[in-house]
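#onboarding

Welcome to the new folks! Below is a worked example of what a typical request in this channel looks like: someone posts a single protein sequence, and someone else replies with the predicted structure as tokens. Don't worry about understanding the tokens yet, we'll cover that in week two.

Example request:
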Amino acid sequence: MIDCIVVGAGLAGATIAEQLADKYSKNVLVIESRFNVGGHCYDKLDKSGIRLHMYGPHLFHTDNSKVWNYLSHFTDWEMYEHRALVAIHGQKVPVPFNFVSLEALFPRALADRIESKLLDIFGFDRKINILELRNKHDEDLELLANFIYKNVFEQYSLKQWGFKPEQMDADVVGRIPVVLNHDSRYFQDRYQAVPREGYTQMITNMLSNKRIKVMLGTNFMDIAHLQEGKIYILGQEFRGSVYYTGKVDELAGFVFGNLPYRSLKLQFERINLEYFQEVAQVNYPNQYDFTRITEFKHIQPSESKDTIILKEYPLEHVHGENDPFYPVFNKESRERYEKYAELLHQYKQIILVGRLAEYKYYDMDDVVARALVAVEQAMQG
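Example response:
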């Protein structure tokens, strides 16, 4: 007998299923449309031993000890501190923009003056945003804010989202960071690593409990039907909980229209070089149709004499043609999501968890934390 259904075998779904089975002794059916577990974390070794992240780079980082300790039950870790560069005016400088970037791109006297003002106003080692710079009404700080906006963010946003930042939610521009130090690590979290044997193996381990059954290659909506507050599976009413991590508009039959997502065309290339670029990630906001190049040998070293890079070409998500990666946040999409959430509220058994289901951005640690809380609340409620 199945007590609970989990839709999706990505990181959120695996966390939910593992907790239900291990902590609450529930019999769980995990339904996954793909023919593999892992969701967008899915990775694999290529023939030369390079571990590829098949849906783009996934770099685990967190300050949440509970999440770190939880996942550590299912994997050993390979410590990795991510570094990224951005190509500007023929140079590659660290991103997020910091003092190293500033000193490389600005005349020395001007860079020194800006650094001095930043330290006087905000203090050392702070992470601020360009709105804070603009709000100081200082000519030098406004110059810096506008430079970062134009050269690092504006065209990148146009490629990534299909429109300029000012057409998005106002807080998006407010999140463009400036780091007031010379630390060129991409993340500053306490824990930074990748699973030693890969995300796919970690998630496989999470789903290994004998109470968990995984059904691959099955679209939940092909076997499920929602009607008048009840859920039917293959024509039979299902009275257990359904933890849903997929597209919320699809679950509701697109009755209010499609929610907008951005997708990616992912182009892997093998190159006859030991290394192609200086670090794992180089962003190209102002050149080419792709947004960035990832080189996986920088993340987990390989003895391969070749290297493999990934170019990411953003495009609009079309249901049934490509995968949804990122919710597109604007007033209209948020209002449409609220309609879906209100509609599904009548189905008390359904619990929405994750980026697609909740139509919000989650880092990996955040989605694990959310999944842990979702199960605990449901079991106690």
